[in-house]
Amino acid sequence: MRALPVGDRALLVEVSTDEEAQALHADLLRRRAEGSLSVREIVPAARTVLLDGLDDPSRLAAQLSLARLPPVPPPEKDAVEIAVRYDGPDLADVAELWGVSPEEVARIHAAADFRVAFCGFAPGFGYLTGLPARYGVPRRATPRTTVPAGSVGLAGPYTGVYPRSSPGGWQLIGTTDAVLWDHARVPAALLSPGTPVRFVPVDS
């Protein structure tokens, strides 16, 4: 684990894996909640966590360099359930990559316990981990110019749901009517880092 200064009051903490980033993020949130860490923002990514608004970044950097990361804690809240129709245009291609039938892709995906590792790309888009490593898939060789809102896709180790229509290169395996981002809702994002998620199959 390496902590790099960012300006006068921030640190970018680098770790080796996305699981370590999730564990660090959860531990920092715990420390802030109990009052042992004063920080304004804690922003996780794939293998980094940004801390902004620190009173003494150098002191925290020294502490982190000696710290051992605890495992990712179990979820503290119920999973967000997202109803999904496994009817995506890349479902057959993913089935071929996995060496199973399209129906089995749906079963495997729906049986996984997902967790939002971090958010980005577009408001409301969460990068979800939970599928075993053997089910990682490459992005499409040629991205689509338009992916419909509600598309459920796979890329590398992640699952994601497109909150709005946009270009994208993920392998699309399904669709959902869930609203990922609603500025009139509090909070506006359905998913946030650390949120447990389950996909529930529904008929097309």
From TrEMBL:
UniProt keyword terms in alphabetical order: ATP-binding, Hydrolase, Nucleotide-binding
Keyword Hydrolase set for record: yes
Record-level Gene Ontology MF annotations: ATP binding; hydrolase activity
Chain ranges of the Carboxyltransferase domain: 1-191
Cited InterPro entries: CT_C_D, Cyclophilin-like_dom_sf, PxpB
Pfam families reported in the protein's UniProt record: CT_C_D (PF02682)
PANTHER family in UniProt: 5-OXOPROLINASE SUBUNIT B
Name of the protein this chain belongs to: Allophanate hydrolase
